[in-house]
Design brief:
binds ligand VHF; binds adenosine-5'-diphosphate; 8-stranded mixed beta sheet; 2 domains; RNA binding; Glu_5kinase; Archaeosine Trna-guanine Transglycosylase, Chain: A, domain 4; 371 residues; alpha/beta; single chain; EC 2.7.2.11; amino-acid biosynthesis; Carbamate kinase; Glu_5kinase/COase_Synthase
């Protein structure tokens, strides 16, 4: 067995995320027998000595049938209404299913803001920790009814990876309707007409070269791209990831013998760099010329005004901004040292042309993270 699988199999604390497609269908809503099978597998892992936090999608999926809607809503207000109906059913179903084992469940609803904001972050951490010490299972979901387009998590894959980071979990398990990462969407033939093949282990970004991460099904939201982004986020915080089918939950949780595993990076990203890359919301962007992209994103130098060609957004000193190249691709992120209007006055000028109070780099190398 590979080292990564062994680490996941023996992880003391794990976060397990279950996608909408694994728990709900369009016509019948929540599938209780599938949920019971998942709870059996989770309970077996807990009986073997692991602490488990569940991140459960499915609120919108569970709210579709009771509201008489025929497909997954696309507008925010209907999604939020469906989530408010479905979350009640979802939390109740988790509670009833775990009650078969006399296990108590606590519902934890979070938004992206709760992870970026230090005070909320500490509260969420404390609640999760206390639920664990009381032997209750936390069932986490995005707080859909208060989340807006701007602040909502891209999806629960990201939320699950942020929760794994928050509680310093030893492993993250993503359970979906697909049995792992394929070279392309397994529902479609690849560009050469051949079927996509399963990738058993991803050791680093090079293993993803040529992989096509497509969109999700009728009920899922994130698709494979969001699972890869979540795996990267977890890997940056030193957490290995297993992606498997919810139908294989028993094997996935027993010995990590199924699906695709993603190795954690050897050294965790520092807390500051992690926050810049993953938690903070970007409030603007700076366009960099080719020389600045090379210096900053590849050679990790500080960003000077001379390499910036345009500035967008209304940010203040201390905010996080995206760094984009001239083709519009995001190449990194950083904490900007000046307000947007100061940056606008400085761009394209060499340091000795600038007044003495504007001679610090626009972004210091320690505050920069490549994409
Ligand atoms: N490269 C790929 N490998 C595996 N699945 C892929 C890939 N590209 C796209 N997919 C699709 O992504 C789907 C899983 O995403 P999604 O429906 O959002 O799941 P969930 O509801 O579990 O979050 C799979 O059913 C699969 O069809
Ligand atoms: N929070 C929402 C959607 C979450 C979501 O990311 O869905 P999925 O891609 O199936 O994990 C819900 O519970 O329906």
């Amino acid at each position: 067995m590979s080292d990564v699988r062994a680490a996941i199999a023996s992880a003391r604390s794990i976060v397990v995320k279950i996608g909408s497609s694994a728990l709900t269908d369009l016509e019948s809503g929540l599938d209780r027998s599938r949920l019971d099978a998942l709870v059996d597998a989770l309970e077996a892992r807990m009986a073997a000595g692991s602490d488990v936090i569940v991140v459960s999608s499915g609120a919108i999926g569970a709210g579709i049938a009771p509201l008489g809607l025929r497909k997954r809503p696309t507008d925010l207000a209907t999604k939020q209404a469906a989530a408010s109906v479905g979350q009640l059913a979802l939390a109740h179903a988790w509670g009833t299913s775990f009650a078969r084992y006399r296990r108590v469940v606590g519902q934890v609803l979070l938004t992206a803001d709760d992870i970026s904001n230090r005070a909320h972050h500490a509260n969420a951490q404390r609640t999760l920790d206390r639920l664990r010490s009381l032997h209750a299972v936390a069932v986490v979901n995005e707080n859909d009814t208060v989340a807006t387009n701007e602040i909502r998590f891209g999806d629960n894959d990201r939320l699950a990876a942020l929760v794994a980071h928050l509680v310093s979990a030893d492993a993250l398990v993503l359970l979906s309707d697909v049995d792992g990462l394929y070279t392309g969407d397994p529902r479609k033939p690849g560009p050469d007409g051949r079927p996509a093949t399963l990738i058993a282990e991803v050791s680093g970004p090079d293993d993803l070269d040529g992989v096509i991460a497509g969109s999700g099904g009728a009920l899922g939201t994130g698709g494979m791209a969001s699972k890869l982004a979540a795996a990267r986020l977890a890997s940056d915080s030193g957490v290995p990831v297993l992606l498997a089918s919810a139908a294989d939950a028993a094997g996935a949780l027993r010995d990590a013998s199924v699906g695709t595993v993603f190795a954690a990076r050897p050294e965790r990203l520092s807390a500051r760099r992690f926050w810049v890359r993953h938690a903070a919301e970007s409030l603007g962007s700076l366009v960099l010329d080719d020389g600045a992209v090379q210096a900053v994103c590849l050679r990790r130098r500080s960003l000077l005004a001379a390499g910036v060609t345009a500035v967008h957004g209304n940010f203040s000193s201390g905010d996080v901004v995206d760094l984009v190249d001239t083709a519009g691709t995001v190449r990194g992120r950083g904490v900007v040292a000046y307000d947007a209007d100061d940056v606008a006055r400085m761009i394209g000028r060499s340091t000795d042309e600038l007044p003495s109070d504007l001679r610090r780099p626009i972004i210091h190398a320690d505050d920069l993270v490549p994409a």
